[in-house]
Design brief:
Largest sheet: 8 strands, mixed
Shape: globular
Bound molecules: pyridoxal-5'-phosphate
Radius of gyration: 22 Å
Order of helices and strands: HHEHHHEHEEEEEHEHEEEHHHEEHEEEH
Helix content: 40-55%
Length: about 425
């Protein structure tokens, strides 16, 4: 069958499709699996209990359940949920927002797809066609964006600068002068986008970096998309107490209910200027009619009452902080004696490990580990938006580890990883 350009672009040979297919293929049946790969959040009993209790209330409350399953919401989302969010964000963060600034999508992943293709791609300006692009100023960046452009070459990116520290850690930073120069020299940038906290690296852009990027966005009259899937005020998987949440009319803030335990309820929240919210609602109307309402219904009273935020702060954040600490401890224990660096664990559910001794690519290393049942994600996938990355010193030397699984699996998975890394060492 001959698919359209759109069909071929989105179903063809893409990194994420290959990765998903490969992650989906199980290791041999007699091999124990150490699941350090995918993006699932941990299942935390205290958090699960809250959702069960909300669901029970919905089931018991008159025709609430029937109305929830038997009625479409409007394309912007559930009116009551959006109203509640507007007043929540206004009160808690002092933002000047109303219902016109909020739109609900079927997960923040589809929201990103809408936003990228709304802003970038071929457009007509003053009678002239130009291909507008999304700029990712902090690569390595979330692989889930890499193939979301409907047209080819819609994404460009700039490699992160990095600093190394003596305790086998390092940290990425946006190369701000480079970003500034790039924007000055290229008038085809439609928006910038960063994940904060970052998937895959666990980096949290500093307040200064975000403010500077937002000031560049303002100066160039383009939006700054901040993907806050792991950030404040929920799930609050962010360990840097100084990090603040920012929003203004130059920012498109993307949030999600997934990483606080509701990934299968597919609820993404976009906060943006009304013009963008209206456009996203229209897209949602055409593409999906409406977004699913279960996540909004389950979260409504939990957000309104402050319980979700309190749970994020008191349960979710400490849970991941402790896991993150243990994961780093295991890495330092088992990788000792090798030339390795761990990215500072500032947030998200991932640890980014750089193995400079590795004598094979991280893609090959991933396959070696998979045979032993250890599933991680090879680093190459997170370098996209240009072809200069093959020369980046981290390009084929990193893996992403999801540290949310049970401690014994995490420790043994890392032990096996270190054992194989030593076997693959160039030294
Ligand atoms: N953004 C980032 C940085 C993510 O890691 C993910 C999921 O892993 C998403 C967005 C998509 O989340 P969802 O569509 O479940 O809201």
């Amino acid at each position: 069958m001959n698919f359209s350009d759109f069909g071929q672009k989105l179903t063809g040979d893409s990194g994420i499709l290959r990765l998903m297919a490969d992650l989906g293929e199980k290791p041999p049946a007699d091999v124990k699996v150490y699941p350090l790969g995918g993006g699932n959040p941990a299942q935390i009993p205290e958090v699960e209990k809250l959702y069960r209790s909300e669901m029970e209330k919905i089931l018991k409350d008159g025709r609430m359940f029937e109305n929830l399953i038997g009625r479409y919401d409007g394309p912007q989302g559930n009116v009551e949920f959006i109203k509640m969010l507007a007043s929540f964000f206004k009160k808690r963060f002092g933002w000047n927002i109303t219902e016109e600034n909020i739109c609900i999508a079927n997960g923040s992943q589809s929201a990103c797809f809408y936003i990228f293709n709304l802003l970038a791609g071929t457009g007509t300006e003053n009678g002239k066609k130009t291909l507008k692009k999304i700029l990712f100023p902090l690569v390595p960046e979330y692989v889930g964006y890499a193939d979301q452009g409907i047209e080819k070459d819609m994404f460009v990116s700039l490699p992160s600068r990095f600093e190394e520290y003596e305790d086998h850690t390092f940290k990425y930073f946006t190369d701000l002068p480079k970003v500034k120069d790039y924007l000055m020299q290229h008038d085809d940038v439609a928006a910038m986008c960063v994940s904060r906290p970052s998937n895959p690296t666990g980096n949290v852009l500093t307040n200064e970096e975000i403010k500077t990027l937002a000031s560049y966005a303002h100066a160039h009259e383009i939006p700054l998309i901040i993907d806050n899937a792991y950030g404040l005020p929920w799930p609050s998987i962010i360990f840097n107490d100084k990090a603040e949440l920012f929003w203004n009319e130059d920012i498109i803030l993307s949030m999600s209910l997934s990483k606080i335990g509701l990934p299968n309820l597919r609820t993404g929240i976009i906060i943006a200027r009304p013009e963008i919210v209206r456009a996203l609602s229209n897209l949602n109307s055409i593409i999906a009619l409406a977004s699913g309402g279960f996540g909004q219904a389950v979260a409504l009273n939990l957000i309104k009452s402050g319980v979700l935020i309190e749970t994020a702060e008191k349960i979710v954040k400490p849970f991941y902080l402790e896991k993150n600490r243990k994961c780093q401890e295991y890495i330092h224990k088992y990788f000792k004696g090798t030339d390795y660096l761990v990215h500072k664990g500032e947030g998200s559910i991932f640890i980014w490990l750089l193995m400079r001794d590795l004598g094979v690519t991280s893609m090959e290393f991933y396959r070696i580990l998979k045979k032993r049942g250890v599933i991680v994600v090879p680093g190459e996938y997170f370098f996209f938006g240009g072809d200069s990355f093959a020369s980046h010193p981290h390009y084929s030397k990193c893996v992403r580890i999801n540290y949310g699984c049970e401690d014994t699996l995490l420790e043994e998975g890392i032990r096996i990883m270190a054992e194989e890394a030593k076997k693959c060492s160039r030294k």
